[in-house]
């Protein structure tokens, strides 16, 4: 029984404390509601005064001010970008064709030079072969002449050749 009595007293004390807190909160709520009401009335008064001032200023200015808001014509950026893209693609294509034409021209000239050089090389090789044959023939003839010189030259002929050379 005593435990229940002390528990009851604790619960009653808590309830009394909560009632006091509830009273304080109720007073705070009433105060806040009064402030909200006051601020709402002040806002309404300010709006009314603002409208009256606007009307007063409009009456003072009369027809002197005519405000007209005109928006700039809208610009279609997608269309502009598409046009730019087309122009650049056209320029790129033109440049590609020009470079391809230049490359083909250079390749033709180079191929012509290669053909000409090959022909010249072939002619030069033929000339070299012909000159080697001529040289070989002349060497053979020279060797034959050298072999014949000792037989033809006798002492009197040597004197004659020596006199002619001097």
Automatic annotation (TrEMBL):
Keywords: Coiled coil, Intermediate filament. GO terms for cellular component: intermediate filament. One of its GO terms (biological process) is epithelial cell differentiation. One of its GO terms (molecular function) is structural molecule activity. It holds the Pfam family Filament. PROSITE patterns: IF_ROD_2. Residues 22-60 form a coiled coil. InterPro entries: IF_rod_dom, Keratin_I. Residues 1-166 form the IF rod domain. This is Keratin, type I cytoskeletal 39. It comes from Cricetulus griseus.
